[in-house]
Amino acid sequence: MAITDWPAAERPREKLLQQGAAALSDAELLAIFLRVGVRGCSAVDLARALLARFASLNGIFNASAAQIAEVHGMGSSKYVQLQAILEMSRRALSEQLRQRDVLSSPQLVREYLCLKLGAEPREQFMVLFLDAQNRVIRHEVMFTGTLTQTSVYPREVVKRALELNAAALILAHNHPSGVAEPSQADQLLTTALKQALALVDMRVLDHFIVAGNTTMSFAERGFL
Q1: Span 200-218, pLDDT tens digits
Q2: CB under 8 Å to 127, separation ≥6 — which residues?
Q3: What is the pLDDT of residues 51-100, one digit of tens each?
Q4: How far is the C-alpha of 123 from the C-alpha of 150, rounded, in Å?
Q5: What letter does residue 6 receive in the DSSP assignment?
Q6: What is the CA 203 to chain-centroid distance, rounded?
Q7: Contact at 8 Å (CB) between 126 and 173?
């Protein structure tokens, strides 16, 4: 049955207008983006097929063009649109981080880090450099490693922080394994960075481990 034949209250677009975007399922939101399905398959059906193939919205956004094209009804134009949406989301969150005190918006920080690092196949070490009002001056991936580890050099982090005249930093790295738990090496590195930055009067506010859509905060665990 075509979506136009559904009761009005059940159609994704009408449901969004009446109840807001948060009321829609992942499949319904994705169906609005797709607009149309294919012969014998509505946009919602196609959305469900994508979710079944890639397990989550995050999986869809981080799939390659070739992988997206493997799903009947999808192609390069839809892949390009998906990537554009993902990048717009990243930039919108980045703008908000530059305008707000990050300590008052911890969920915003988590969402941004998940978008940037959650699906990376190799470990990446990112630093958010903050001003005296805890607003983001700049965010950079400073080191990239392998599937299981990254070499991080505290001297380079201190040097970059001084160049940007940062007052504080938030550290983050991803675990491609999907487990957001700190290793002993993670804890030792955090301590080393905290001590090195303290010598130049800079604070480490937190260190996040990102695994897919999950984050772990060193500050919340009492590790800082």
Answers
A1: 999 999 999 999 889 999 9
A2: 139, 140, 142, 157, 160, 161, 169, 170, 171, 172
A3: 999 888 888 888 889 999 898 888 888 889 888 988 888 888 888 877 87
A4: 6
A5: S
A6: 24
A7: yes
